[in-house]
């Protein structure tokens, strides 16, 4: 077996661009999915049964379908419904955001529910409105408990962005698979791809452990 | 906009056999991952020290690398290294097992860690061997506490098998692609298949929640 690792250097520019798109996609998705998750969680917790029902259906649906299928589905269905052609990046971003918003919503809901009811009651007894109690008492405490889980969702999201390669978003996985098809240097390119993901993902996974140690809820 | 589900109905048998393969792959992966993951997790806690370093490296690496990358590497690159060519189904089984075992190992570790140290000490004081303490005191409680996490592993596994479509395992996702390509009805085909996945995944996760609610008291101490 003859290996030729120079192909990795030869295409290092393209790979770097792939890395950039992967990171950009992760950041953009999280920026959309955190507000999205908060909205879904507040809808779920609202007194209105229709509103909370809609949120529950959305969350359960997007949590219980494979992400790769969701990406395909968005890719084919979105242009038909809206009659606008979205770029692959925007399509991937939307699919990832739907998925991660659903997960985040459950995270936020659990965080809010973990703050004892007595705290809201005390705030209301002190003359705060429901909204005020939520904003000033419950959410600041919930945010702290939610942080470790958000961090591990972040790492999952970072890995899941590789799935958008199926609709030809120029992310790292897609770029690497393309180079593999062009050069037939299968082992070198695939190993390089795995190593790049590892180098990027490993510190994140370790950081999540540290966040858990510092902020995780202990019984 | 017109909907036409005849393409889905015409090829339902083709899709159904894909579903069968999805379920087979999921069941095999879950069983294998539970066995391997438990072994790895126990090795990390009770194994000799030199063993923990490679185990921690393996677990953290799997947490850092996407399952797609593992899958593609095992299918395309591994044959070049070893000379053994795995058929797509077996490559998917191996890759998913390698990936998911790491998560199972973490769950096992967390489950065992949640049983207080006093229980181990009490068992040892009563004259049990370490193996006996693990088998008779720690694991029965830890297993029940691990159940919700095992439930999410099952759900993650079923969802991850869809990624095996990338290496052309003819499971439900791959067959959906094929049917949508032949019929030019991607919207209907993917919508139908998405609903099928939901109908499998949702009851599975709910079932595990219900089972856990009924037996969680046995894990308390």
TrEMBL record, chain A:
Write down the membrane topology. Answer: Multi-pass membrane protein
CDD domains recorded for this chain?
Answer: TM_PBP2
Q: From the Swiss-Prot or TrEMBL record, state where the protein is found.
A: Cell inner membrane; Cell membrane
User: Pfam families given for it?
Assistant: BPD_transp_1 (PF00528)
Give any GO molecular function from the UniProt entry.
Answer: transmembrane transporter activity
Q: What is its main location?
A: membrane
Query: Is-annotated flag, keyword Transport?
Result: yes
Supply the InterPro entries for this chain: AA_ABC_transptr_permease_3TM (IPR010065), ArtM/GltK/GlnP/TcyL/YhdX-like (IPR043429), MetI-like (IPR000515), MetI-like_sf (IPR035906)
Annotated TM spans? 20-42, 54-78, 84-103, 186-205
Q: Which UniProt keywords apply?
A: Amino-acid transport, Cell membrane, Membrane, Plasmid, Transmembrane, Transmembrane helix, Transport
Q: What does this protein do?
A: Part of the ABC transporter complex GltIJKL involved in glutamate and aspartate uptake. Probably responsible for the translocation of the substrate across the membrane.
Q: Which family does it belong to?
A: Belongs to the binding-protein-dependent transport system permease family. HisMQ subfamily.
Oligomer status and interactors:
The complex is composed of two ATP-binding proteins (GltL), two transmembrane proteins (GltJ and GltK) and a solute-binding protein (GltI).
Q: What is this protein called?
A: Glutamate/aspartate import permease protein GltK
User: Which organism's genome codes for this protein?
Assistant: Sinorhizobium mexicanum
UniProtKB/TrEMBL annotation, chain B:
GO biological process assignments: amino acid transport
Q: What InterPro entries does the entry give?
A: AA_ABC_transptr_permease_3TM, ArtM/GltK/GlnP/TcyL/YhdX-like, MetI-like, MetI-like_sf
Q: Name one GO molecular function term.
A: transmembrane transporter activity
Q: Record's Gene Ontology CC terms?
A: ATP-binding cassette (ABC) transporter complex
Keywords (alphabetical) are: Amino-acid transport, Cell membrane, Membrane, Plasmid, Transmembrane, Transmembrane helix, Transport
Q: Where does this protein reside within or beyond the cell?
A: Cell inner membrane; Cell membrane
Q: Which organism is it from?
A: Sinorhizobium mexicanum
The record's similarity note reads: Belongs to the binding-protein-dependent transport system permease family. HisMQ subfamily.
> Transmembrane region positions?
20-43, 55-76, 88-108, 146-169, 189-212
Pfam name, any one = BPD_transp_1
Q: How does it sit in the membrane?
A: Multi-pass membrane protein
The name this protein goes by in its record:
Amino acid ABC transporter permease
